[in-house]
Write a structure and sequence with these properties.
By secondary structure, the chain is an alpha/beta fold. It is built from eight helices and eleven strands. It has helices at 27-35, 58-71, 94-107, 121-133, 151-163, 178-195, 210-215, 239-249, and strands at residues 4-6, 9-11, 17-22, 44-48, 77-80, 112-116, 137-144, 168-173, 200-204, 223-227, 237-238. The strands form two sheets. The chain has a nine-stranded parallel beta sheet with strand order 9-8-7-6-5-4-3-10-11. Helix 1 runs parallel beside helix 2 (58-71), helix 3 (94-107) runs parallel beside helix 4 (121-133) and helix 5 (151-163) crosses helix 6 (178-195). The longest helix has 18 residues, at 178-195. InterPro entries: Aldolase_TIM, DHquinase_I, Type-I_3-dehydroquinase. Homodimer. Its EC number is 4.2.1.10.
């Protein structure tokens, strides 16, 4: 399996990396969220642009991205605009969604961009290729807030992400039972052992799925998401608690 190096962070090697979402409504809130990161043990910062009240204003969104880059010059920065169809805060037309994603790629401020698998095949492939041409890692993803697909379907979606140009493949599902969490983790392990060409991220959301955020690395997941102050998805836990558990699982606790 290939690894992906973003700044000095290597995804797909060692312990899972911790990504911290910045979920603010405006520039002032974003500055407050950035201050809240001080001293926290995280590896990747994620700008959740769909949380912004002016998320439909591309110029405003890019200025917020610039602010995050200026505040965190040495940290890998992931740009994410989550569509309402996959649990995001701001409904946008398909063309506007891809315009934002591609603006982030061209800006020079994002190291990684989140691209939703089911947003449109041609534009997903086009955006992934554009990211590669600009030295930006393409994180293709899929979020199911209603259910957990069968194991075979989870693997098929991850494989499609690879085929469409993903540098990192991510899937997040909503378990309805503990058995669903096992389905997600089994799919991740099978993908990791037999089919993965790129690093993968597999998350079961909600309280029931917290174990996948803590122990996902055991099953092949290369990154997990933890909350600094405001969670961006159900089941995210505090970064410090997350780091403690990852240290324990890596047998590196101090």
């Amino acid at each position: 399996m290939n690894t992906v190096t973003v700044k000095n962070t290597v995804l797909g090697e060692g312990r899972p990396k911790i990504a911290v979402p910045l979920a603010a409504e405006d520039s002032d809130g974003l500055q407050s969220a950035l201050q809240g990161l001080q001293g926290l043990p995280f590896d990747v910062a994620e700008l959740r642009a769909d949380f912004l009240k002016q998320a439909a204003d591309a110029g405003y969104v890019m200025d917020c991205l610039r602010q995050v880059r200026a505040a965190l010059p040495d940290k890998p920065l992931l740009f994410t605009f989550r569509r309402a169809e996959e649990g995001g805060r701001c409904p946008v037309a398909q063309d506007d969604y891809f315009a934002l994603v591609q603006a982030a790629i061209r800006s020079g401020w994002a190291d990684m961009v989140d691209i939703e698998l089911f947003a449109g095949e041609a534009q997903v492939k086009e955006s992934a290729a554009l990211a590669k041409s600009h030295g930006v890692a393409a994180l293709l993803c899929n979020h199911d807030f209603d259910a957990t697909p069968p194991k075979e379907e989870i693997i098929a979606r991850l494989q499609t992400m690879q085929d469409w140009g993903a540098d990192i493949c991510k899937i997040a599902v909503m378990p309805q039972s503990p058995a669903d969490v096992l389905v997600l983790l089994d799919a991740a392990q099978t993908m990791f052992r037999h089919y993965a060409k790129q690093p993968l991220v597999a998350v079961a959301m909600g309280k029931m799925g917290v174990i996948s955020r803590l122990a996902g690395g055991t099953f092949g997941s290369a990154m997990t998401f933890g909350a600094a102050t405001k969670a961006s998805a159900p089941g995210q836990i505090a970064v410090n608690d997350l780091r403690t558990v990852l240290d324990i699982l890596a047998d590196e606790a101090v």
